[in-house]
């Protein structure tokens, strides 16, 4: 936005806002002058806080705007603000007596052009009943930016501004809280999501048609078109009987989801096609839960809970190629594999039981054993029409054919845990936790999109598999806190985690000893094991009364073991190794009573290696496959200065940098974060009188990203002001 246009837009917001302020003040209760019998003058601290009788109600009006240069949509995504001017009611709180012993409370805010609204109205008679209405809506933005191909400088993005997605909910609830009767609450909730959101599922393009016409990269941007509504009803009852608290809850939910993934294939090329992958789902969910908590003795408590849920889904969908999104199916040469008229349904039943025991055998020791059992059963079936067009290259032309699919799954999980806490040693606190999870399941799959009218473009036959799977998870953690000195705290700890999955395939539709390059999945793997070792140390030191230092270090090493079917002839391998170092330092200093300073620094070193790391493909001898890097560091600083008894000044600064980007575009899509971001804000708060407070803020933000070749870079200036009236 040009500075002149920005100033003009900002002026349109400032004028009506200031007019509203003066009208509100003119009709507000007058401030009475002190008489001869008035109490002693207030201290400066009392004046700043609103006096000895603190004002309980207020309204705060605000106006401001962003002035952005560069990629405006990227700025809106990162800053969570829409570019340009905005304004409205920043904060509102009113509380009073509607009737005898009945209070009315109103809270809310409304920021124009940000689609940020919130209002809550509560009517309550304490210890008797309450009614509450709440509405909330907020918007998020995302940059519809695709990939960047460095050799030719090609950048892929969709025209227009940032994609906008609204989220919100409306609730109405009421309750009876009578002393001798069960407490009852009822709540109705309407939730929604509506709008567009960017996706990292990018479509294919030929980024270098002259030098490498056969090279295809996934660089073309795509986005989600979301339209979701959910209506939920909750009824809950609680009652205290002797030493037991009882609870019962009912929940019913109906959802209507109409979403689509919109992709563009070969953007800007003569054969450009838009693909709409639409999924519609309606569901009904009913659940009932019960809880109890009983203190048998002062040192022994048992809590229990159970839940049953039933979920029914009906879904439909299509994947259609066309010259625009959301068009009817029409066969065109070289359209890829798609489908129309997809319909189906699924059913899920879930049972959950929890038991927890708290025991304090001695004053310095607590023991908490717990167990959780969960069982799920579901089945699903679907059918539709598969579509494919080969442009008559293979002589099949436009092929269509029906398909159907059935699947079912049963799974049971049992999770046990044991927590111990011991404080029997002077200046020491020890905590130990063990957690074990065993699970077994079975999955049957049959059907799916296979050969279309006898033609199989990708060599993928219909699925016919049965899988028996098992899981055994275990995690052990130990933490200790030590107070060696009055101003020194040492925290040390760590954990070991081992998650093991095993698979057995009574029926497998693919040969696991197929030649390299041919399909072996899904029955190819028999074991996957994820192991993690973690250790951390934290020091908190106060060398002086007004200085605090906190130092942190964490080391984490993770490995994934993968074992294929012995029939494949392949050995077990370490398919991934990740090593991370996390270093942090925070400093707080109060040099004098009017000034406080805080600074923080974090440095992360993280690398993921696979057997392919360092491998050089034969066709791209100069471009090895790289290990994944996730190294970055951040710096933040904040200060608060009391200029006088009525004025505060706050300054904040942050910086982020990652240098993991490497141009590997000759072998694939270059990945790795290569960005820096920093920003500074200054906020001035001024008490004009006991009723009025002025707030002024300026912010500067700068972002640069190597991964997109600089196309997502931006600079942004924030100008913001608000006026609060307390009464």
Q: What coarse outline follows from CA principal-axis ratios?
A: globular
Number of helices: 3
- Rg on CA atoms, Å: 31 Å
Distance between the first and last residues' Cα: 39 Å
Q: Mean pLDDT, rounded to whole units?
A: 88
Task: Give the helix/strand class.
Answer: mainly beta
Helix content: under 10%
Structure description:
The chain has a domain at 1-27 and 57-124 and 682-727. The chain has helices at 3-27, 44-48, 72-79, and strands at 58-70, 84-99, 102-112, 116-125, 129-142, 145-149, 154-157, 163-176, 183-205, 217-241, 244-265, 273-297, 300-322, 338-362, 365-389, 398-422, 428-447, 463-485, 488-507, 525-544, 547-564, 573-592, 595-609, 628-629, 632-644, 647-659, 674-687, 692-705, 714-726. It is globular, with a radius of gyration of 31 Å. Mean pLDDT is 88; it is low at 2-36. The protein has three helices and 29 strands. It is mainly beta. A hairpin with a 2-residue loop joins strand 10 (217-241) and strand 11. It has a 26-stranded antiparallel β-barrel. Strands 6-7 form a two-stranded antiparallel sheet.
């Amino acid at each position: 936005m040009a500075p002149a246009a920005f100033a003009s837009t900002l002026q349109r917001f400032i004028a009506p806002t200031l007019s509203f302020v003066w009208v509100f003040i003119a009709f507000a209760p007058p401030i009475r002058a002190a008489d001869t019998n008035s109490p002693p003058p207030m201290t400066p601290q009392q004046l700043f806080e609103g006096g000895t009788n603190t004002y309980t109600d207020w309204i705060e009006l605000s106006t401001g705007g962003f002035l952005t240069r560069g990629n405006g949509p990227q700025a809106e995504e990162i800053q969570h603000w829409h570019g340009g001017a905005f304004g409205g009611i920043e904060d509102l709180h009113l509380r009073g007596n509607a009737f005898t012993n009945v209070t009315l409370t109103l809270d809310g805010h409304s920021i124009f052009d940000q689609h940020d609204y919130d209002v809550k109205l509560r009517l309550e008679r304490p210890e008797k009943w309450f009614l509450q209405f709440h509405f909330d809506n907020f918007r998020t933005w995302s940059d519809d930016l695709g990939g960047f191909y460095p050799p030719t400088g090609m950048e892929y993005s969709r025209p227009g501004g940032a994609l906008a997605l609204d989220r919100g909910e409306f609730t109405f609830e009421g309750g009876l809280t009578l002393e001798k009767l069960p407490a009852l609450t009822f709540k109705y909730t309407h939730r929604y999501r509506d709008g567009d959101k960017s996706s990292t599922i990018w479509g294919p393009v030929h980024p270098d048609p002259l030098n490498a016409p056969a090279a295809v990269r996934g660089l073309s941007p795509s986005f989600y078109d979301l339209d979701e509504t959910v209506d939920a009803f909750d009824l809950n009852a609680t009652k205290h009987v002797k030493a037991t608290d009882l609870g019962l809850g009912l929940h019913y939910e109906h959802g209507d989801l109409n979403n689509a993934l919109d992709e563009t294939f070969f953007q800007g090329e003569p054969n450009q096609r838009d693909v709409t992958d639409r999924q519609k789902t309606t569901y009904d969910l009913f659940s009932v839960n019960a809880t109890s908590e009983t203190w048998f003795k002062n040192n022994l408590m048992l809590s229990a809970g159970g839940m049953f849920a039933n979920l029914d889904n009906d879904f439909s969908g299509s994947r259609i190629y066309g010259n625009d999104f959301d068009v009817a199916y029409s066969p065109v040469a070289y359209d890829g594999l798609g489908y129309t008229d997809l319909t189906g349904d699924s059913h899920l039943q879930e049972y959950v039981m929890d038991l927890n025991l708290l025991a304090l055998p001695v004053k310095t020791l607590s023991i908490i054993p717990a167990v959780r059992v969960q069982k799920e059963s579901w089945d699903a079936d679907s059918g539709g029409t598969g579509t494919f067009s080969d442009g008559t290259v293979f002589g099949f032309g436009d092929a269509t054919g029906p398909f159907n699919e059935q699947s079912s799954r049963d799974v049971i999980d049992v999770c046990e845990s044991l927590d111990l806490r011991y404080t029997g040693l002077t200046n020491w606190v020890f905590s130990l936790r063990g957690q074990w999870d065993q699970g077994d399941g079975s999955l049957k799959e049959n059907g799916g999109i296979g050969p279309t009218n006898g033609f199989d473009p990708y060599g993928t036959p219909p699925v016919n598999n049965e899988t028996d799977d098992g899981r055994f998870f275990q995690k052990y953690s130990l933490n200790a806190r030590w107070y060696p000195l009055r101003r020194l705290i040492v925290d040390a700890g760590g954990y070991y985690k081992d998650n093991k999955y095993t698979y057995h395939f009574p029926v497998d539709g693919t040969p696991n000893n197929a030649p390299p390059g041919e399909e072996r999945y899904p029955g190819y793997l028999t074991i996957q094991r994820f192991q993690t070792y973690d250790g951390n140390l934290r020091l908190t030191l106060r060398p002086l009364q007004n200085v605090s230092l906190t130092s942190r270090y964490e080391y984490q090493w993770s490995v994934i073991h993968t074992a294929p079917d012995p029939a494949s002839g392949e050995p077990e391998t370490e398919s991934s190794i990740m090593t991370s170092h996390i270093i942090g330092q925070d400093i707080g200093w109060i040099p004098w009573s009017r000034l406080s300073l805080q600074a923080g620094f974090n440095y992360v070193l993280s690398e993921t290696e696979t057997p392919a790391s360092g491998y050089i493909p034969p066709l791209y001898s100069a471009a090895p496959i790289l290990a994944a890097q996730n190294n970055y560091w951040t710096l933040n600083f904040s200060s608060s200065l009391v200029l006088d008894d009525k004025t505060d000044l706050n300054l904040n600064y942050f910086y982020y940098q990652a240098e993991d980007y490497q141009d590997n575009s000759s072998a694939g899509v270059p990945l790795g974060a290569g960005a820096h971001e920093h920003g500074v804000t200054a906020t001035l708060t001024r008490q004009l009188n006991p009723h009025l407070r002025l707030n002024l803020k300026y912010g500067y933000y700068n972002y640069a990203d190597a991964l997109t070749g600089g196309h997502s870079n931006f600079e942004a200036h924030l100008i913001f002001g608000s006026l609060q009236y307390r009464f």
